[in-house]
Specification:
8 helices, transcription regulation, about 150 residues, Arc Repressor Mutant, subunit A, globular, WH_DNA-bd_sf, mainly alpha, two-stranded antiparallel ribbon, MarR/SlyA-like, WH-like_DNA-bd_sf
Length: about 150
């Protein structure tokens, strides 16, 4: 297939009014969530990045490189964030039982409690979602997963 036929068979970019409105609404939701997350972090004397790392570590302890991959940043940035969380007693470093050469960052009991309180203080999404039925929330979840290319 030559480049002219490939271009002709490719789907046209979606710039209709509905698509543009949906994109704008998604942007507004993301901005509001980000603003609330930063405010909640500040109420716990954390930066947004520190709060994200702490929240991630409450799911499972992990090495700096994996934290950096999940947050899409440089491992050196994560090291500084973990250092500051460790000084505050919210995170500790421990050897990885599978490979003692690797250090895992893990939340302390105080870190888990701080992450829980921070999560509980976020109600931007909870409030509007509570107004949707279970069926509507399920449809929304499934559509978001589909947009992200995740299996349902």
């Amino acid at each position: 297939m030559d480049s002219a036929s490939a271009a002709a068979s490719a789907p046209a970019p979606r710039t209709d009014a509905l698509t543009l409105e949906v994109v704008e609404l998604i942007g507004t939701v993301v901005a509001r969530y980000h603003d609330e997350y930063e405010e909640a972090a500040a109420q716990h004397s954390l930066t947004g990045a520190q709060a994200r790392v702490l929240g991630l570590l409450t799911l499972e302890p992990m090495p700096m490189r994996r934290i950096a991959q999940k947050l899409k940043c440089e491992p050196s940035n994560v090291t500084g964030i973990v250092d500051r969380l460790e000084v505050r007693g919210l995170v500790e470093r421990r050897p990885d039982p599978a490979d003692r050469r690797v250090k895992l960052a893990a939340p302390t009991a105080q870190g888990r409690e701080t992450a829980r309180r921070l999560r509980d203080s976020l109600d931007f999404a909870r409030e509007p979602l509570a107004q949707l039925s279970t069926e509507e929330r399920t449809v929304l979840r499934d559509l978001l997963r589909r947009m992200l290319g995740e299996a349902g």
